[in-house]
Amino acid sequence: MSTPSNFEAQVMNVLRGHLSAISCRSILQRSMARALPPGVELDASNAKQMFMHLRAGLTTFCGPTLCEDIMARLERLTEADSEGPEDLKIRVVVEHQNDISQARWEALEFCRRAGVDRFTTQKITTAVSELARNIADYSHGGWVELERDAKTIRIFASDRGPGIPHLESVLDGSYRSRTGLGQGLAGLRRMMDFTDIRTSSEGTHVKTEVAAWR
Amino acid sequence: MKSRRRQRVESSVPVIQIWNRLLVPLQGEVTDAQADRLFDDVLRAIQRFGAEGLVLDVSGVWLMDSHLCAILARIAAAARFMGARCLLSGLSPEVVLTLQAMDIELIGIETTLTLEAALFELGVRLAPAQRDDDEDWLALAQLTGTDETAAPNTKDTDAQETK
Question: pLDDT tens digit string along A22-42?
Answer without folding.
Answer: 888 888 888 888 888 877 888
